[in-house]
Design goal:
By secondary structure, the chain is of the alpha/beta class. The protein is 33% helix and 14% strand. It has one domain: Alpha/Beta hydrolase fold, catalytic domain (Rossmann fold), CATH 3.40.50. The strands form two sheets. Strands 1-3-2-4-5-6-7-9-8 form a nine-stranded mixed β-sheet, sandwiched between helices. Residues 1-21 form the signal peptide.
Length: 390
């Protein structure tokens, strides 16, 4: 795949990104395996472990990785999806869709954003420019290995890949977004840049989840806020015909889903092939040419709504899945008794944070899997195989 204008965004060579970013960002002409080896050495020396006896698993969780289609696929042209995780997360959060789509004849690669994979304190001085550099360098590398390149992202990763695609519309076949961040779900998110020079943390808990940080420092929130403002300006001011697939929850407590829906309607919906899957507790199951609504009020499964992180999680994930070893109860971290009850309850309710969920259980957990995951992966695969490549 030829990327005629890609060098204009390879900012790694001209912007001082800081020591951590220089380690995390893939270098020009650096092979993926070489990059993995270099990054692994850095992570081994700087990571804070949840359980030191589990180092191999914890390191593997945060490492960039790729999945290749089987030889049975026999595709005439290779299709690749380059994926980026969200703020405070790691490549582990995208393991399920990467594997599922590889099984559907799509080559997938998941990258690590600077400031992640080690300890939350490494987000204190991270910049959105380093995240952009990570995207640009990874595109430069992966584009040489596939015929049609799609970009995908979860949350902040979704904002980053949307911006890149809009800036390089001739180089990207399409975009796949899971719970993309176009606006933080808060009426005071605008305060974060003002607080950042003076306040490092609003809360600061040690993580017991080896897949992500428990707390995000204010400076990193400010960077995400500034990124969303810039991405929104780019997307709404520049008309593009890039096919986009978006999956999100109407009850999302992290990102403002109403803004995502507005962005889709105004800037993405008109492109042939663009689709949205909306999970909602209040809407009935419906489907149009560009939008599918899936009701997620599922009392028989003790699920009320899909959380921000549940959209792209497989029910059989051994860590975050329905019977997984880890339960996400982070919103109770200031209340240890309730937090512990949430973690060990055998017949609990799950969903997204809100009064309706807590009315069903005083210690309800955050849903970390999508009961319709396989259907979603089928839809993403059909979208990617059917959209006309550039």
């Amino acid at each position: 795949m030829m990327l005629g204008r890609i060098t204009t965004l390879l900012v790694c060579s001209c912007v001082a990104l800081g020591a951590w970013a220089n380690e995390a960002v893939q270098r020009t002409n650096e092979g993926f395996s070489e990059y993995q080896q270099r990054l692994r050495a850095h992570l081994e020396g700087h990571k804070v472990w949840v359980d030191e006896s589990n180092k191999v698993v914890e390191l593997d969780a945060v490492m960039p990785f790729q999945r290749q289609p089987s030889d049975d696929c026999n595709e005439s042209e290779s299709i690749g999806l380059l994926l980026f995780h969200g703020l405070s997360d790691s490549p582990f959060s995208l393991r399920d869709p990467a594997q599922a789509l590889a099984e559907r004849c799509i080559a997938t690669r998941v990258m690590l954003l600077p400031g992640h994979g080690t300890k939350a304190e490494d987000l204190l001085d991270v910049s959105r420019e380093s995240w952009r550099a990570a995207v640009a360098q990874a595109v430069q590398s992966f584009s040489q290995e596939v015929d049609s390149l799609y970009l995908g992202g979860f949350s902040t990763g979704g904002a980053l890949v949307t911006e890149y695609a809009w800036q390089h519309p001739d180089d990207i076949a399409g975009v796949v977004l899971f719970s993309p961040l176009f606006k933080i779900n808060s009426s005071i998110d605008w305060l974060s840049p003002w607080l950042a020079p003076f306040v490092d943390w609003l809360d600061h808990y040690p993580s017991d989840d080896y897949g992500k940080y428990a707390s995000i420092p204010v400076p990193a929130i400010a960077e995400a806020y500034k990124l969303t403002k810039e991405v929104m300006h780019t997307v709404t001011e520049q008309q593009r015909t890039i096919p986009v697939f978006v999956a999100l929850s109407e009850e999302d407590a992290t990102v403002d889903s109403s803004v995502t829906m507005q962005v889709f309607d105004q800037a993405m919906k008109s492109t042939l092939g663009s689709q949205m899957v909306l999970y909602s507790t209040s809407r009935a199951n419906t489907q149009t040419e560009s939008m599918k609504v899936v009701n997620t009020d599922l009392p028989e499964q003790k699920i009320f709504g899909l959380s921000h992180m549940a959209i792209h999680g497989a029910p059989d994930n051994p860590y975050y899945g329905r019977m997984g070893s880890y339960r996400v109860c982070g919103w109770y971290q200031g209340e240890p008794d309730i937090y512990n009850e949430c973690r060990r309850a055998e017949n609990n309710w799950y969903g997204e944070q809100g009064e309706l969920l807590t009315s069903k259980s005083a210690y309800a957990g955050r849903l970390s899997w999508n009961p319709y995951f396989d259907d979603l992966m089928d839809q993403v695969s059909i979208f990617m195989h059917s959209v006309q490549a550039p």
